[in-house]
Write a structure and sequence with these properties.
The protein is an alpha/beta fold. It has helices spanning 29-40, 65-68, 81-87, 103-108, 110-131, 164-183, 205-214, 235-247, 267-278, 306-312, 320-336; strands at 20-24, 44-50, 72-76, 93-96, 135-139, 187-192, 195-196, 220-223, 229-230, 233-234, 256-259, 265-266, 283-286. The protein has a 7-stranded parallel beta sheet, sandwiched between helices. Strands 7-10 form a two-stranded parallel ribbon. A two-stranded parallel sheet has the order 8-13.
Length: 348
Amino acid sequence: MHAISAFMSETIFESYTNKNVLITGADGFIGSHLTELLVKSGANVTALTLYNSFGNHGWLDYIPDQIHKSVTIYAGDVRDSAQMFRLTRDYDVVFHLAALIGIPYSYEAAHSYIDVNVHGTLNLLEAVRSNRVGRLVHTSTSEIYGSAQTRPISETHPIHGQSPYAASKIGADQLSESYARSHNIPVVILRPFNAFGPRQSERAVIPTAIRQILDPACDKIKLGDLSTTRDFNYINDTVRAFAMIGESNNIEFGTAYNAGSGVETSIHRVIDKLLEITKCDKKIISEKSRVRPKNSEVRALVADASRLKKATGWTCETTLEDGIHKTIDWWRNHFANGLVRRNKSFSI
């Protein structure tokens, strides 16, 4: 089922015309938007999606037909080293986004996170090394910093894994850095801060709140800790950062680059804005099951993205409020077209 594109920007990158690009995790939130952007920019895009017996390709099944038919889709798994070796031949750029990202599930299944996020990244690094890929863009996360010790957070901020998920991404980042140093692999690390927008999993706070606000089956809005702060970035800005770091001649391999607005906003303020825009008066309930363990909660995140700006010229172009409006509009369209699954767990 292919729906109207959620990618609002007309930004294209002519430097990608006829380039061969591989995106792992293309079936996910960020990956599907990056796929759209690079196809529109003229790239020859191969999308790796996680194999499943249902025969679907995640969010790639919802991108416009004219985009979808231009993408070569492979089902597979980054944990399969032989497949990664075969798949990564003859690419100018590989964007590695495939990962397990749900923080709550990482408390329950930490081995899975090491297997996918660490071993999977190692497989990509070895494949890129053997096949002489032009560039590997490895996806990190702001969660590797833990709660901000200094504000804003630059790439020199101490690394502090406060969840098994964060620990697995730290391991993947360190592997990427080590392969750049040890084997001269052209790998660069992009560290996005709290992307949000259409297609995001309801495990994240903005989509789970919007869904409950708009869903008539929900008489209350169940959330976790609203006092934490984050640096929220609309998805269009996040995928622009991927595209720009994938083409820039000014980046340093083996180095991490933050992508964030530099604006710190509390979850409570975001929820208030959602309620205001939607004119919703449902009661907010804080559930203990949605709250991270005390020493695992990341209290504050806000980016210093000056290194990325200097190297590529990237800055955020969408305000938080504009991004929220666009995301609400997408959810309303999703409801109107009967595309919302019946799911009352709303886990984050």
